[in-house]
Amino acid sequence: MTITETYFEKYKEKYGSFKVATQVFGDNRLVIWKHFKYPSKEYDSFFSYPNEDATDREIFKDEIVIEGDLPFRRLNLNSAVIIQLHYLDTKELSYEKWHSGNKSYHFHLFFPELLEYEDKDIPLLKELIIRWIFECDRIVKRCRMCEGVKKNGKRCFIIKNRIDMSLINKHLIRAEGGYNFKSGKTKRLLIKRNKGVNKIPLYVKFMFKNYHKEKHTYHYGKYLPNNIKDMVCIHYFINHSFNDCRKRILIILANVLQDKSMIKKWNDNLLDGYFSDNHINYVCKYHSTYPYKFGCKFIQQTLNELGLVHRLCGSCSRITKSNSKVKRIEFDYSLAKLPKKKHSNNIHERSE
Fold first, then answer.
1. N or C: which end of the chain has fewer CB within 10 A?
2. What is the pLDDT of residue 7?
3. Number of other residues whose CB lies within 10 A of the CB of residue 334
4. How far, in Å, are 81, 161, 164, 225, 274 from residue 67 at the CA level?
5. Residue span of the structural domain in which 278 resides
6. How far apart are CA 106 and CA 121, in angstroms?
7. Regions of the chain short of the pLDDT cut 70
């Protein structure tokens, strides 16, 4: 029995069936995945050869995965050492430390108490726990991922080390022993610490309770900002770089902004030219003929995968009841200033 199969069987006893996936085709720009339920007849027939297993699995409801997304393995290694010694060990948490097989390191922590909460509250609770681990309590003030915020003269550890906050949602992660198609190596266990059952700190429970008292109310898919300049999500998209959901964000920007030059500047300055000009031209041309603008429901699905829905949708200042199919409205470009492109000799690798 392989390492992956051993862990899958353990998770089956605890959670029942769960989602797994494997890469069936891919290159630097296009990856095709095949998804399964484990256990299932479809899974057994597809992986019929010995020592063949799925490469990825879902992140469970009571599981928190901490992963630094810096561009080089050496930088992620330094970050992982600090996470382990300065944060996890000092707080006496139980965890497993894995090398992904490529350039990143994964810390897997389980908090059984999370199973008692509703699914819609899990992303916020996980984010609060991560911020408690890294001693950052600014989410109640709706800080945009702590950008520009300094604590004791230093930038927040989460931003400085590019901790992947999208993993607080329903997301796939490299399975234990899973094969990495980029490096040809497998995910391997480095350290296992057992300090007992991890419990949600009272501080996190207090923050969670107070956040729900203070946050703005909003409704998925039923409301649309009455002007694009009030759409906090669009301003966030056009001014930030992303490692996940880039194709969907491009579609949203093409549909809402209708400005090919601004989208190309965003692609060149913040994504380092991830999309080709031909691809951007095709997407923008298609959406220029599409008569309706995307509503909140579609955009919130992307925000939810990025772990931003609580932060951005909750801070929308003007929301009025309206049909999601609303004619286009002019965008205030002065509110979406793009940063100047920084020239660098560093080679940016794609994240895991």
1. N
2. 94
3. 7
4. 12, 9, 6, 34, 22
5. 223-335
6. 23
7. 25-31, 137-155, 211-230, 291-292, 309-311, 314-352
Q: Which residue has the tokens 């951007």?
A: 280
Residues sharing a CB contact under 8 Å with residue 140, sequence separation 6 or more, in sequence order: 207, 210, 211, 214
Q: Taking the model in full, what pTM does it have? A: 0.61
Please count the other Cβ atoms lying within 10 Å of the Cβ belonging to residue 252: 23
CA distances to 40, 245, 348 from 301, rounded to whole Å, are 28, 10, 27
Shared-domain flag, residues 301 and 174:
no
Residue 214 DSSP symbol: H
Enter the tokens of residue 231.
């759409």
User: At how many degrees (to 10) do helices 277-288 and 246-256 cross?
Assistant: 50
State CA 194 to chain mean position distance.
27
pLDDT at position 314: 62
Does residue 230 contact residue 316 with C-beta atoms inside 8 Å? yes
- Count CA atoms within 13 Å of residue 279 on its CB side: 12
Nearest-CA neighbor of 218 among 120, 81, 147, 143? 120
Task: Provide the terminal-to-terminal Cα distance of the chain, rounded to the nearest Å.
Answer: 26
Residue 37 forms part of a structural domain: no
Number of separate domains in the chain: 2
Predicted pLDDT at 80? 94
Report yes or no on 311 lying in a domain: yes
Q: Is 248 part of any domain?
A: yes
Q: Which of 39, 175, 181, 205 lies closest to 96, judged by CA?
A: 175
Report how far residue 233's alpha carbon sits from residue 297's, in angstroms, rounded to the nearest whole number. Answer: 12
139 and 172 belong to one structural domain: yes
Give the span between the Cα atoms of 274 and 264, in whole angstroms: 10
